[in-house]
Specification:
about 725 residues; 9-stranded mixed β-sheet; alpha+beta
Length: about 725
Amino acid sequence: MQQKLIKVIAMLLTTTILYANSAAVVSYAADNFLSAKALENQGTSTTNENVEFDVYYDGGKHTVSADVNAEDTKLNIALNVKKAGYIKDAVVDFSDTNFKIAKTEESDSIQAVDAENKKISFNQINNGENVTETINIALDKKDEISEDMFDRDNTIKFTGTYVNAKGEEVAVKKDIVVHTSWTASTAKAKLDYEITKYIPYSANNVSKLITQGKITSYVENSVLPIKNTNIEVNAPKINNKYPETVTVVANSTNATNGDANGDNFSKNNWSYDSTTGKITITVNNNAVNGKIQWAKNTADEFIVTYIYSSDVYEAVKDSVTRVTYDASSSMNLYVKSGVNKVSAHVDGYEDQTKKIGDIVEFTSNATQSISKGYIYNNKNAADENKKETEYVAQYTAHVSYADVIDAIVLKQDVDQFVTANGSEQSTTVGGVNYAYNKTLAISKQEFNKVFGENGEITILNEAGTTLATINKDTEVKDNKIVVNLVPFNTNSITIKTSKPQAEGNVIFEITKALAKNIEYSTSQLRSFTQIKTQVTGTAKNSDIDIVSTECTLEGMAFASYWGSYFARISLQEANSASSIGSVTSGRLLGSTFSWFSLLWAVSSWVFSPAICSSSLGISSFSWSMASRSCWVRLCFWVFSWALPESSWLWALSSSARPSLILASFSSSCFLASARRSLTLTSSLSFTSSILSWSSVICTDFLTRPVVETLATPSTRSSWGTIVSFT
């Protein structure tokens, strides 16, 4: 009897558990989407019987399917006060939706549109008024979006205050759900393959044939986000044999999952079957906290390296070799209807007759432009106001076949100043470094990928003394290993790595600085147009340099003369400000005469017509002309405050070069005389104006040393007085 009772209880428990689980599933599905009937039967009543609210698509429907590129999908907002009273502070909130407000028409009913926060505020709506406004909506194409962005129920919230006939205020609200699906009528996969390396390798009794291909994959125009990318590659047969081994490295999986540098790509993302020659690459765009990635106008890039046996090497080393490629891609897209899967295929061949590329390739890039502002300013500034000028050089080692590499060595040479005619001047003179290394940084992920957890990097000076060592115990911050090199004051270092454990890329980022005190003359500094930095990259197998490459960067150009000149003006202004406590205070002090100009300009604008109408007295004419000159300077002054980042405007308003003052004054004379139909005076003023503006060009572009002299703090003060009282 007891056993029967236990069985009955067990059956009841099982039934209860199954029912609970199924109920949960049903509830979840119901919570996700309202049925078509429920959507259309929501009604318009709010929490107050006199106020009605609704949101609907064309035809009065509460569901729509629109194209992802459409910008003109209509959504209607209806508000109605039936009887006595009115609504104030009405707001319709679209923040919990899968679309953005693309366009709204001007209307007396709409008070404000907050497109960023997706809210629309309405003016007061009185009883008897039926307000209907139409807005255009579009898919909100951010780089990070919700997983359900393309198909979801959107809750639109209305809130407001209803004031009844007695003047009593009552809060009203209403939620309306509309279902919005976004689809694509067309989407196209793109797949490219490029043969990048062909290396018959033989050293230390090791012979291999190495080939490499670069695969690029993406959805054309980034029409939809990618859910996952699958690529199949048929490895090329050479001498009727498949590769012994294959490696796959991702330079980027940005198109699929937003990983711009392929940091999260690992051996788990690819496989190779040496019996069939099949390579499979898989990348997923999994949701994290309900969010997926959607990077635009970018691509996934994979480097596939094929290693063939010594037999293959011997068979093809002195002959023409046909290298084939054959790859297919398939991408599932994050959309439930319309086009949700795309594919592409690429194949071809190349006949190789000579070596292409190296086992380790070294590439470089650097800061594109360096300002001379600090450099010039340091010539006259007090020691406490002098500043260094930083620039950055990056050197990348691309490792294609780790097995034959025992170490990678980067040797940095002393940087050189370069003139326009190509002559060089060292940044180290007499043992004094005018440029020095500040930091060396590398990615922790790249370090672990290529050199392994037990890898090591040693940094040495020119004498071969170890300055620092990077290993698993080195401090990591924001996924970067940063070594401080400032205490060593070195302009040249050598970086030596342990044996690479895997194929991949390692970026060495070196931050350097030009010192506060550079003993070259101002004219010499002016002649320097760029900085050249050079590194020699070497890949070693035992004591043999199997690769040795010089990476020279000559693209670090100094900013144009005017960029540095106006930067210098701004720096001097900032330095002069220190005496009264702040840059802002300095600008106010430097603008004292502009305030005087303002008073002069306003008063002369009012009184000069009366004065000048009496006679052609030189004093009255000069008075009117001077007022116009003040107005010219005042315009520069106002714009410099409105756009503080435009240092050139501030320089024009406060540096007070005499040629510019004279030109502005003469132009003002011409305009004023023309206004009064004074033909002779107008002609003279016009001629004077042309000559004056010509002097501006001559002074600014042909006699720069004179301009720089006039731009020093002492002379600027004098010329500032002349400007205000001319």
